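Example 3.2
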Amino acid sequence: MAGNFLSGGHEVERLPHLLRVQVQAVEIDSTYYGPPAAATVESWYGKTPPDFVFAAKIPQVVTHTNMLVNCEPEFDEFIERMSLLNEKLGPLLFQFPHFSKLTYVRWLGDRKRIEELTRTWDKVIVERRDDVVKWAEVFRQFSDTIQVYTYANNHCAGNGPETVKLFWELLDQPRAPRTVNE
């Protein structure tokens, strides 16, 4: 979900309720400016449903000011604070300064689910073509102007290299004609 979904008149205190009703995960942008107070993180945990997921940006002191060098205390503080989310902690986002015109995509999967099906990563065992088709459509719109890096772990579909190969094959295909009703 991108953008602000609070309309005029909503109080910030109602945010946990609105989150429970409207979304199942959020990216915490405010962590980019520094680790939140422990009480804040504990409040987020307590006011959201058991299956809610928080993604959080790594603080800018780590990614911009120090560029990952000599920033262990700041990084450790952030990790310690965010670990208060326990099972609700999802991905951590490293947002770096603009270096060039590129984008990075990494497909992950449900590790627990796929490891119930296999532990040999030699073939695709979960059909993810529909997901990959959607991503190819998105990147086809600007792949001529930016460089796209794609990665997939084996938990995505059973074989990471095959998932990436499928993406590049789909990206190179001509677009299907669209009807007015689509």
